[in-house]
Write a structure and sequence with these properties.
By secondary structure, the protein is of the alpha+beta class. It has two domains: about 270 residues, Zn peptidases (Aminopeptidase), CATH 3.40.630; about 120 residues, Alpha-Beta Plaits. It has a six-stranded mixed sheet. A four-stranded antiparallel sheet has the order 11-13-9-14. Strand 1 and strand 2 form a beta hairpin. The protein is elongated, with a radius of gyration of 24 Å.
Length: about 400
């Protein structure tokens, strides 16, 4: 089959890709609470219309995942998984229209989830249609998954599929990194979310010396944490490590000395560093403050995901680069991602997984989220060619 045949096929799929994306966006799958089953039903109808075998997995009712299977799985023959998440973040404010009534404007699809990650799912459904129609040519198996809970850690999504449902693959592509298909995610920073609690003693606001102000003590810590020294400060594919103060909560009224203050930190650290070392350093800072002031602190780890990486010269990266260049005229660069995708869970299972996909990096989670229709078509073409190279006889 010629590359031009795939190109023509995907251009003929434009209307279907738009319709599927709009149907998926229309399903309100804000996480929390999730309700991914609403979008799963759209994918299920599609799979049924093409006689694609599928399984729905639910760890909690309504928090559904769906996996469709094309081709055959055999020993020694590759399996390729593409997973798009069906949950979205809350819509928030500032929209020009209803975020769940998708609309088309200037060649773009607008709506919550358009670029993160329902537009990509719609494009991959077009890829699935092509592969199903050419299933007799496949020597391996293609899996298309619509997964839950990516926006909140994937415990009900890909982690559940890998750890409890027996879903397995040799290779995986996760189209959840945007950057307009100009980069391939081969390494991701570690992600460490911490909650620091400062304990004080409540007293009347007119006699603060009778209490211990938990907020003042927290402020001492927050000033010092900005000077935290990371063991690994540079990496050829990554920006430097970061610390973000995401939230601070404390106190109840101006005339009460606060007995409690909580702060949440988002720390993104480089391969070569470790969360144990970072937490140890933070505990050292807290211990030093406790020795100097009437202060007491606790540290709680909310989330801890280690850095992950695959070699930049892995054949999967070369395949994507080759076909992206043929379709787009540009060769995407292997790079590191500061955010976290479900490639982490896959790599930790020994699966070669990379991130690649369409979309503007500034669109995800923003008001008036949108994605280019042309990019979706180009992405579908590239992913079809990559899948054929891996799976076709």
């Amino acid at each position: 089959m010629k590359n031009s045949d795939v190109k023509d096929y995907m251009h003929n799929e434009e209307t279907e890709i738009i319709n599927l994306a709009c149907k998926l966006i229309h399903q309100k799958t804000e996480n929390p609470p999730g309700d991914e089953i609403l979008a799963v039903r759209v994918v299920e109808d599609f799979f049924q219309s093409l006689c694609i075998p599928y399984t729905i997995f639910e760890k909690i009712k309504g928090r559904a995942n769906i996996v469709g299977y094309i081709g055959r799985k055999e020993v020694g023959v590759p399996t390729l998984l593409v997973a798009c998440h069906l949950d979205v973040v809350p819509a928030g404010n500032g929209w020009a229209g209803n975020p769940y009534d998708a609309w088309i404007e200037n060649g773009r699809i607008y709506g919550r989830g358009a670029s993160d990650n329902k537009g990509q799912m719609a494009a991959m459904m077009a890829v699935a249609r092509f592969l199903k129609e050419n299933e007799s040519r496949l020597k391996g198996q293609f899996l298309l998954a619509g997964v839950a809970d990516e926006e909140r850690g994937s415990a009900l999504g890909l982690e559940y599929l890998l750890n409890e449902c027996g879903v397995s693959t040799d290779l995986a592509i996760i189209p959840d990194i945007a950057h307009n298909m100009q980069m391939i995610d081969v390494t991701e920073k570690g992600t460490l979310f911490l909650e620091i609690t400062s304990h004080g003693r409540q007293a009347h606001g007119s006699t603060p010396e009778m209490g211990i102000n938990a907020i003042w003590n927290m402020m001492i810590f927050l000033e010092r944490i900005q000077q935290l020294r990371f063991r690994q400060t540079s990496h050829p594919l990554h920006t430097p490590p970061t610390i973000n103060l995401g939230s601070v909560h404390g106190g109840t009224a101006p005339n009460i000395v606060p007995a409690l203050c909580k702060a949440q930190l988002d720390i993104r650290y480089l391969p070569g560093d470790s969360s144990d070392a970072i937490v140890g350093d933070i505990k050292g800072i807290l211990k030093e403050i406790e020795s100097q002031y009437p202060a007491r602190f606790d540290v709680k780890i909310i989330s801890d995901q280690s850095p992950t990486a695959v070699p930049s010269d892995t054949p999967l990266v070369e395949l994507i680069s080759k076909h992206a260049q043929s379709v787009l005229g540009i060769r995407p660069e292997p790079k590191g991602l500061s955010g976290a995708t479900v490639t982490k869970q896959l790599i930790q299972k020994g699966i070669t997984a990379v991130g690649f996909g369409p979309g503007d990096e500034t669109d995800a989670h923003a008001a008036n989220e949108s994605i280019s229709i042309r990019e979706l078509i180009d992405f579908a073409e590239i992913m079809t060619l990559v899948s054929l190279d891996i799976l076709a006889e």
